[in-house]
Amino acid sequence: MCEFVIFFGSILASKNLGPDAYENFLDHSYLGDRTTTIRKYLESPIGRGIMDEVVPASLRDRYGG
């Protein structure tokens, strides 16, 4: 769960910085395998739908969700 919160929060934080920062984050940040970009992961069958998750109330203010 901790890794998911950090991953999800990083995506939300980059999105809150504006479209240029968000697009850059998706294309230039990688998973632990060091080859899969965040964008590719979110487009994959495994990652699809992650951004539809509901942010826990305790974290909404922290990550701007």
Main sheet attributes: strand count, strand direction, barrel closure: none
**Total number of beta strands:** 0
Shape: globular
* Run of helices and strands: HHHH
Helical content class:
40-55%
Helices and strands: which structural class? mainly alpha
Set down the secondary structure blueprint.
Blueprint (H helix, E strand, L loop, with lengths): L1 H15 L2 H10 L9 H6 L16 H4 L2
Please characterize this protein's 3D structure.
There is one protein chain. The chain is mainly α and 65 residues long. The chain has one domain (2-52). Helices cover 54% and strands 0% of the residues. It has helices at 2-16, 19-28, 38-43, 60-63. The longest helix is centred in the N-terminal third of the chain and has 15 residues, at 2-16.
Keywords:
mainly alpha; 65 residues
Give a brief description:
The chain has 65 residues and is an all-alpha fold.
